[in-house]
Amino acid sequence: MHHSAAAAPWRTVALLAALVGAGASAYLLVEYVTGQPGVCLTGTGCDLVRASAFAYPLGIPTPLIGLVFYAAAGWLVVRSVGRPSIAGIPAGTALVALAGLGVVGSTFLTAMEAFVIRAFCTWCLVQAAASLVLLAASIGVQRARPAVAAEAHSSRTRQQAARALDVERSSLGRTAWLGAGATGLVLVALLALGATGSPTVPGETSLAPAGSPRLGSGAVEVVEFADFQCPGCATLAPILAGMAAADEMTLVSRYFPLDSIHPNADGSARAAAAADRQDSFWPMSEALYARQAQWKDLGAAQADAFFAQLAGEIGIDVARWQEDYASAEVAAAVDADRQQSHALGLTGTPTLFIDGELYRGSLGEEEIAAAIAAARQLP
Fold first, then answer.
1. 44-64: per-residue pLDDT in tens?
2. Cα 150 off chain centre by
3. Same domain, 22 and 162
């Protein structure tokens, strides 16, 4: 058994980088799962990234992938002490390969934030920095290994090496536990700080104006702030419409186009608002969501033509719709909802208010139905 003292500091740095990356991933994962508003030093970047298609590759939350990656990296760092190979692969090589994979992944995501989403998530950047430090430290561990070959093989030297390994294992263990504890405390503090910034509802009248489209006649009012180009809104739309049709609640729709990440969000909102002037908001809403994949990537002129085609398909006066679509009144109606969204502190879609309370649960049908049932039982 050989040991290189030069590798020990690098292993500590690698472990700390893995802990930081895991902490940032865990923080984001809590936000993704609970909808809890968080601390974002890059403005609304965190929420814009979370609302993008890159937030759930293959339906898996990106922070969960990051958490598994950094946990595996930390395990490998600790496990590599005194072991020249793990599962037949040189320990240093395995660590460098894993860290390199992390850098490739974080570089890709950062590039998507810069050139596609055009918004940066603070905690994604922390993870990207952690992956770079992890790779540099892993290379340091790997390059320190050749020094072991020059060590003597006497019994005394082997005993010294064994003691050094024990000391390093203990040190890394303490670092892991202390780092995990400190990270946990920071996460709790950040989540608590984020919760204090929760949006407050200024009153039922401003939350659901009389002119907003309504569906159903249930006792509980559910207000949805939605973006017609948002994939999550398209998934949720038939669920909410079905509940409203069954009179489980009254659905109120508000416009919240996320223009910075969805180029046709404003146009689709105006398309629905123009249809609403002919009492056809809900047919247009259904058509926009059902055909989202066909218009979301169109240029402005092509999108305008597509929305006019939808107006014809749902059977309204297209000439009148086109006038309304281009009118200042419709633009003002959409902008009023957008400003209301900002005033409420909302940053992503879909956002629900159930009986006047901001809903933070899962957007599944059972969870929403349970929240509506609970609201119905309130005095």
1. 667 667 766 677 787 788 999
2. 50
3. yes
